[in-house]
Amino acid sequence: MSESNLRFERDGHVAVATLDRPDKLNALSRQLSKELLDLCEQVNEDDDVWALVITGAGRGFCSGVDLTGQRPSERSEPIHSERADEFGWVGRQAMGISGIAKPTIAAVNGVAAGAGMSLALACDMRTGDTRTRFRTVFAERSLSPDSGMSYFLPRIIGYSRAADLIFTSRDVGAEEAYRLGLLDRLADGEGALDEAVRLATTVAALPPLAIRSGKRVLQHNMNVGLEEALRYETAGLNYARRAPNDLAESMLSFRERRPPNFTGT
C-alpha cells in the first residue's frame, strides 16, 4: 500500500490537514486528489471537528497538478462513470472542499498555483505570510481556468481584478494578495499556519451548529436576491436553534458573565 499524501491531525475541535508531497511542492497527484475528497467526507461526518485548516508541507501550499507523474484524470482505461463525468476530478475537488459544512481555512505557506490556487480559493478563508505567492497559471498552459477558479476568484476579489490575474498569469505576492482580499490574515515571518490555527480556534469556540448554519446561509445568499436571502436567513435561524443546550448556554454565560462552554447539542 502506498504512503498517504495527506496528513490529518486534530487538537480539540480544530483539525489540520497537510498536503504531504513537499518534494513536488504538494502538486496534485491521483492519490492526493482522492485523499482530499475522502477528507471532505471524513470532516463532514466527524462531530468532533468544528473547523478545518488545510496547508502544505515544506515550502509550498500546492503547485497545481503534478505534470511529472500520473495526473488525477489519467487512467489506462477509464470506467464508465469517469467517461460520463461532466465535472472531472477538478470539479469534484472544488465541490468537495466548498461543500464541507464546517469552516475551512487555507494556510497558504508558499506557492499556490493553478488548481492549487483554486484549492485555497474554495476554502472559506485564507491566511498567508511572507512566503505566500499566488499564480493562476492556466493561460500559460494554453488553458482557460478550471477547478472552480472562474467561480471563486471573481466572488472573492471582483471581476476586473480576477480578469487581471487570469489574463496575465502573473505572480501575486503576500502583500498584494492581502490588499486584493485573496488573504484574510497576513502573518509575519512564516506564521501562516499558526495564524490559521488561531483563527480556527476562535471560530471553534462558538456554537458549531450556529456556525454551520451561518456558512450555509452565506453560501446560498451569494447567488440570490434580497427577498429570498431574507427568507433563507429565517430558515437558517431555525436550523441554528436545533442545538437547544448551546442556545441556553449562550444566554446563561452572558448573564453569569463567564466564557461559554458550547457542546454542539
Describe it.
The structure is a single chain. With 265 residues, the chain is of the alpha/beta class. The chain has two domains: 6-204, 2-enoyl-CoA Hydratase, Chain A, domain 1, CATH 3.90.226; 208-256. The protein is built from eleven helices and ten strands. It has helices at residues 30-45, 80-83, 88-98, 115-122, 149-157, 159-168, 174-180, 192-204, 208-221, 226-240, 244-256; strands at residues 6-11, 14-19, 51-56, 60-62, 104-108, 111-113, 125-128, 133-135, 172-173, 185-186. The strands form two sheets. A six-stranded mixed beta sheet has the order 1-2-3-5-7-10, with helices on both faces. α1 packs parallel to α3 (88-98) and α4 packs across α5 (149-157). The longest helix has 16 residues, at 30-45.
